[in-house]
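If you are new to this repository, start here. Below is one unmodified record pulled from the training split, so you can see the exact layout before writing a loader.
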Amino acid sequence: MINLKFPIEKILRFLWAAALLAIPVTSFRWFPLLSEGRTLVRPLAMYPLGFLLPLLLFQIWRKKISLNVGGAFIALGVFVLFVVTSVGLGFLTDPVPLYGQEYFGRTIRALVTLFIGLVFFFSSAWMNKNEEDLRFSIKWIFAGLILNIAWSGLQAVTFYTDLLDREMVTRWQLAFSMRELVRTNRISGLAFEPAWLAGQLATIYIPFLFAAVLTNFRLTRHRWLEPILLALSLLVLLATYSRGGILTTVTAAGISFLFFGRDVLRSFWHWFIRGFRNRVSGMLLRIGMMAVVISALMGALFFLSQKAIFRNLWEIDASSLSEYIIDINAGARGAYSAGAWTVYEKYPFMGSGLGTSGFYIYQNLPDWSLTTVPEIARQLSPENRLYPNPKNIYIRLFAETGLIGFILYLAFQLHLLGDMLSLYTRSELWTRFAAIVGVFAWFGVAFYNFTQDSFATPNIWLVSGILVGLSTSRVYPQTNQNTPSQEWRRTSNV
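And here is the target side for that same chain:
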């Protein structure tokens, strides 16, 4: 009799690799049971994760995978339990239906998006227990990044040259995405819009590349690959012209470097000063480096200033904060957030229920937005069928889960940061590298959440899940956990 073993471990690895490769595609067109225009967050990675999660649960049931429950898991569980409870209590508010959408329909939809986020988080945690798992994940994260950069380059060629026909490339993109090429010639990559691509770079890809360059931790056998990918990622980030994405990246990188890069900065400073005391060649080298850095910064500022969306930040002559918000094209976003904040003032402790703040936004828009913001005027027309969103996950939490829900979510985030920092205390280079990745991504997500309000976005779950998996496995070591080998370091490559 032939004994056939079901290769479940290989299938798990294959599905996880497929999910990481598919992360850049955020609005996959071909999702069943979803309306064509209402649901924009449609991660392609949900297809492989839809098969991966049941297999992981099956392995946990067979005790092939240890279910380590750390502080972050407990904090997340308490938050989710409260959200479900607040949804039930929120039914008592009985809001007036909006555009045919009712309370339970919106809450079910919101709970589904939260469930999608939890799938990303738990899958990331359970698939990353040691250095070998981390390296495997990074390999496929980089593969997805290379695809994203390649498609971004294709868009750039289409926008700025005559080599490719725009209509043809638009048809290619609509084959998998719900959105055509951006008409303002802003790079969106495989994501739905430029801001989403910038968010991916700031919270997933650049953290890994930044930490690799800062710590000199080799992720591949090609020493030049990480610096080149970092440079290309920064170029793509600039080409998105996303103010929020660029500011998020710069701020998260600055904070991370302040915490972890002081030794590097000190060594570089000693090397830099020493060059002016020796030969002329050393002095010229350092002056040349200064010129290159200054030129790069000036070039980036000049590049960004070509778009009015950036020039408006410093060229606007506004007499009030509301006028400034309107003039920099943030009036609609600010109006939606202000309208959602009134929901928190009405239901300060439990909120109105997850996904239901939109029932109250239109009736609570600030006066300044009703006549001066064209987008708001369009949304208030009788032909509009758009259900509004707060555009800010923190304001959404205050409005829909109240002060209690926000505090529980904050506790979960602080647990995540604690798990990441706990890895930095280890003596191993790879754990210090992972901690820097996690802290960079944590701050990136913290700032990114000011500009988005969906729990289904993979960006806010992926890296934190990976780091929690690594951290809990260090606290609760598995008996069947494999230790990384030098052979893996020699063979790992993208």
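Two things worth knowing about this chain: Confidence is low (pLDDT under 50) at residues 478-494. The longest helix spans residues 393-424.
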